[in-house]
Amino acid sequence: MKKILTAVLVVSLAVLMMAGCKKADSSDSSAASQGGQESSQANSEATGTKKLEKGQKLIIGTNAEFPPFEYVKANGVIGEFDGVDMAIAKEIGERLGMEVEISNMDFNSLIPALDSDRIDCALAGMTITEERLLEADFSDPYYTAIQAIVVPASDETTQKVEDLAGKKVGVVTGYTGALTMKDATFDVTLEHYTKGVDGAADLRNGRIDALIIDKPVAETFLGDDNDLKIITDQKYFEDEKFGIAVKKGETEVVKQLNEVLKAMTEDGTIDKIILDYVGVVSGE
């Protein structure tokens, strides 16, 4: 009798344990399925479904240390911000029916800010490069630039980039000049700056021998200063294309920006803005 009861109890417990396991497995499977749905939704949102909506705020990141493209002044075209890119940003906002807000930050913080959705796009004289295309998407180009060498007016030895061998050269961290010079095949000491204007000041004071920066920016820094001069080396520095950076995968935003930029190019707005701030149209 005891054996029969014992056997019945063992069978009953086994049945209960199996039922419990099935319930737990079902619950775990449901949770996993739900987690998979959330992940899929997140991936879906990252594939380019975001759009710039009329009536909403358009947050544009920049680095306002790059005249004549972006800089700070008392009365800029957007609050305290002025320059080629800021005028383009204002026009884009007006054509999309959006309120533009500028978020000023270090140049190297712009792409991380896109990744974390703190800004909608970055308009900061940013050259479209293969390296950056791995981290962000870009609009069609709106400006063609080239790097320049800035040296003291008394320097008669520097005619091309290779003449900087053995010298101390200033570059701005994250800018194309810095990216290009780090791969130089000759010996050169690079002095890194976060602001081009600081590099120009050190050049005037003799702390560095030369400064590598975009030609229009170099011309702005020089102004009427006869103590410095600009040298171009088109054999070493290739033409660069500026574009508006957006978060990787935001294809709809890129499409919207391209449509506006195309219209601004066709009606002459882009050339007028560049002419107003740079003095010549893009690529000249």
UniProtKB/TrEMBL annotation:
<feature type="region of interest" description="Disordered">
    <location>
        <begin position="25"/>
        <end position="50"/>
    </location>
</feature>
<keyword id="KW-0732">Signal</keyword>
<dbReference type="InterPro" id="IPR001638">
    <property type="entry name" value="Solute-binding_3/MltF_N"/>
</dbReference>
<feature type="compositionally biased region" description="Low complexity">
    <location>
        <begin position="27"/>
        <end position="45"/>
    </location>
</feature>
<feature type="signal peptide">
    <location>
        <begin position="1"/>
        <end position="24"/>
    </location>
</feature>
<feature type="domain" description="Solute-binding protein family 3/N-terminal">
    <location>
        <begin position="57"/>
        <end position="281"/>
    </location>
</feature>
<dbReference type="Pfam" id="PF00497">
    <property type="entry name" value="SBP_bac_3"/>
</dbReference>
<protein>
    <submittedName>
        <fullName>Basic amino acid ABC transporter substrate-binding protein</fullName>
    </submittedName>
</protein>
